[in-house]
Automatic annotation (TrEMBL):
<protein>
    <recommendedName>
        <fullName>Centromere protein M</fullName>
    </recommendedName>
</protein>
<keyword id="KW-0539">Nucleus</keyword>
<dbReference type="GO" id="GO:0005634">
    <property type="term" value="C:nucleus"/>
</dbReference>
<keyword id="KW-0158">Chromosome</keyword>
<dbReference type="Pfam" id="PF11111">
    <property type="entry name" value="CENP-M"/>
</dbReference>
<dbReference type="GO" id="GO:0000775">
    <property type="term" value="C:chromosome, centromeric region"/>
</dbReference>
<dbReference type="InterPro" id="IPR027417">
    <property type="entry name" value="P-loop_NTPase"/>
</dbReference>
<keyword id="KW-0137">Centromere</keyword>
<dbReference type="InterPro" id="IPR020987">
    <property type="entry name" value="Centromere_Cenp-M"/>
</dbReference>
């Protein structure tokens, strides 16, 4: 399910499936994109930041057209203890690899991978980013 911002409308709460992962998309070419994500974060329950949130940064192939500071994106990941993924949606190979990575994260967050919790996975992602 996709939403342009949070909070989600409450009139369909009873029909909404369980939310296992929230992927915030940030277009590196749009300051509005970052501002929208920052405003939406206030509407996310704190328990989601225990491994069930990630930031997906698009447009990274055009660093010379950036409107968003990379430090601001890294800071979001640090403050919310959530992984930051970078991709270029216009390149099919990278788009497919990113989709597969997100699907694997979703499987872990939904509890479909025995022995791996969203919290431990999030910790592994942060540790690998530090290396």
């Amino acid at each position: 399910h996709l939403a342009t911002s949070l909070p989600l409308p409450s009139e369909r709460d009873h029909l909404r499936p369980r939310i296992d992962l929230i992927a915030f998309m940030i277009d590196i070419k749009s300051k509005y994109s970052l501002k929208n994500v920052e405003a939406s974060l206030a509407h996310v329950d704190a328990s989601f930041f225990l491994g069930k949130v990630c930031f997906l940064v698009t447009g990274v192939g055009r660093v010379n057209h950036c409107s968003v500071e990379m430090n601001a994106i890294w800071k979001l990941g640090e403050v919310y203890c959530s992984p930051v993924l970078f991709c270029e949606l216009e390149l099919e190979g990278i788009r497919v690899a990113t989709a597969q990575r997100l699907l694997r994260m979703l499987q872990i967050c939904a509890g479909h991978i025995p022995g791996v919790s969203a919290l431990s996975f999030g910790s592994l992602m942060r540790n690998s980013a530090d290396d």
